[in-house]
Every structure is written in structure tokens, then in C-alpha cells.
Design the sequence.
């Protein structure tokens, strides 16, 4: 009888450690797949942000002013389209 009780005590510790190992493995696998999904989402959002920033058109144009003794000439700046950003070709939305 003593041997049977001693055997059950030893097996109880084995079952607990096996459960902990299984729970730990499942947690690590779930964490890895969750981090991959997070990485893909962040890369997608940063891609959207970079395309938005690259489509900003900073062209400006204003004619000269004159008033009494003072005058100024006009100015013009045309923002050139960035044809390549890395390996991605992006068409500027305001290209005519």
C-alpha cells in the first residue's frame, strides 16, 4: 500500500509538469503567429503612409504684386514627380 501511495505522488508531479510544458508550447506558438500578424499589419500601414506622403504635391505659383512704390515679382515652383521609391513605381495622382 505504501508503494502505491508513493507512486501516485510521483506521477502527480509528472502530470503537472507535462501540462505546463504543453501550455507553454501552445502559448509560444500563439505568440509567434500573433507577432507575424502584427508585423504584417504595421508594414501595410507604413506602406499606406509612405504612398500618401509621396503623393503630396508642393507645387506653388503666385503672380507679382505692386502697390505704390513697392512691387514684387511672381514666383513659380513645380514639384517633380518621384518616379521611383525603392522598388515600387508610384503614379502621382495629379499627373495630367
Sequence:
Amino acid at each position: 500500500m505504501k508503494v502505491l501511495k508513493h507512486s501516485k505522488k510521483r506521477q502527480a508531479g509528472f502530470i503537472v509538469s507535462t501540462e505546463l510544458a504543453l501550455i507553454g508550447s501552445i502559448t509560444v506558438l500563439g505568440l509567434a503567429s500573433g507577432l507575424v500578424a502584427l508585423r504584417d499589419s504595421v508594414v501595410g500601414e507604413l506602406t499606406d503612409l509612405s504612398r500618401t506622403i509621396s503623393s503630396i504635391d508642393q507645387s506653388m505659383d503666385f503672380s507679382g504684386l505692386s502697390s505704390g512704390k513697392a512691387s514684387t515679382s511672381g514666383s513659380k515652383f513645380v514639384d517633380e514627380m518621384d518616379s521611383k521609391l525603392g522598388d515600387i513605381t508610384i503614379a502621382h495622382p495629379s499627373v495630367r
User: Anything to note?
Assistant: The radius of gyration is 34 Å. Residues 2-54 form the longest helix (53 residues). The chain has one domain: 2-89. The beta strands are 60-62, 65-67, 70-72, 75-77, 84-85, 88-89.
